[in-house]
## 1
Amino acid sequence: MKNWIVLVVNLFSLAAVADLGGTWAGTINWSFQGTSTPCSAKIIFTETPKTLHRVSSHLDCQYVTMDGEAKTWNLQSGQIWDGIQVVGTAASGVYRWSEVYSSDVTIQNQIQVTAGHADYHERWIQNKDQTEIYLLTGRVYPQ
């Protein structure tokens, strides 16, 4: 009986790890041309079996701040859709997707959710030559 209880608890833990929904806070380093600045971060997502919604995101780097807009994607068979096309994947707690910032810039995102935290990786890329403009990396924790 004890083995079954442990198994059930582990299965619930794995299910919780795979979900990006909730409020996340921590430190994200914002790098530009080799210089990195630590920023306090707060990101809020909701997730259902069919949608992933970024409610808000805020980075405070003392001298500069950045707020991410609210956005909703559709989830279907491990793929992330922007309503028109597949823009990424979501599987086993790893979310990867691209967003169009402008006709010149694409944002590549990856968030890996594990027990007790999520590793955050965001690259801003110049489309014409694939040059990295910004790199944001860090770790956030559920609040």
## 2
Amino acid sequence: MVTSDFGSHVLAVRDLLEAAGITVHLGDVTDPNPTMPYTMIQIPPGVPFDVNVAAKQVEFAEDLPVTVVDDSPLNCLRTRQQVRDVLDKAVPTVEGRVCFPMRLTGGTRISPDTSVVIPGTNRHPAFGVDTWSVASTPAQTTVEEAP
């Protein structure tokens, strides 16, 4: 039985970034001219797994790709570091779950997005993708002893 969905974890990571003043898009960027810099959290499937035969303890351990976009490679590098500073060892808050500190598990080089031209500049934005480990277990509930 699934007691939580991974979407609540994605929203918790978004909240961490937004609290630090970082613009976040979830899954897609629908604005044709988004203000830079920004991040986009790619939404993984969030496949839970049972850790006991009774299916009463459902765990999550998922890779969460976070794309960082800025108007130049150097600015993207700086923004990526800001995002890393926020997320490294951060503990998302998810109701009913105990989340573990996030860990950076991979990343791509910063590259130009040649499919996009920044209006008025004839330049391409730059992006890089970091992969973060997000994991949680159900919060333990205490049973009050009968009098």
## 3
Amino acid sequence: MQNVKNIFQLDYGEYERLSSYLKLEIKEEIFNILNKKLLLFSRYKNFSRLDIFIKKIKKNIINIYYLDFFIKFFFKKSILRYQLNLILALHESDYDNFQIILKNRNIYIVFYELLMFVFVLISFPIWFLIIIFLNIFRLL
């Protein structure tokens, strides 16, 4: 069970990086609720080799951009997709965070996100080959 718990749950650093990627305010109470929900989810969902592979990848801001693209379009049932969606849902249900979400949306942000999407779309194959290479040689 410990192995399953490690795959599904996030440590605080991962939560901070995923929340920062989503441009959300980090709150410990949301982190605690998140891990409780992930633990419940782990009782009903089996993880795949892809989930283990994704878990090994360091969650820095660059990798999160690529992973989000990868799982959003190709592996919608990934644990990371569920974690990102759950983080977003929990933050949206918090009044303060919801106000931040509303305040941070403007035309510049939309334009920036569109540029990032195009960049990730074009450079994704190179990033993916690097990640596979690092995994083969256990450098992740």
## 4
Amino acid sequence: MSDARRGTTGEYRFVAPCTVQIKFHGKIDEAQARSLLGRAAERAVGLPYVLLEVDISEMAGASPESRRISAELLRSMPYRIIAVHGGSFAQRIIAKLVVKASEMLSDGRQISSFFEHEADAQAWARAQAATLDEPAMRS
């Protein structure tokens, strides 16, 4: 099952059973963060984990409010495997602020890594998902 949408805020795609692919466009504001990550959080309800593949190659920054909302929405999801790819050094720093802040407050329910290329991010994320056992996926 797949659910894909493209809009001015970015792109969102759910791929069953537990993968969400997001691509941010332009400078991310609160509405954009709520739209894309909110949709992911809604889709993640009831899943044992969510594998987030995030493309930041077209992201042009993020407002402080969007970073706060993003971290809040990430924490609302079940166990998270987050693979971020693309983007400049500055873009990766912005994304890392949000992802690592969420990870620090996740009680061990999130792992993340950053990659230059999409294929590397996907391979890492799928390898991480393959190592999950049932008890870890349900906690």
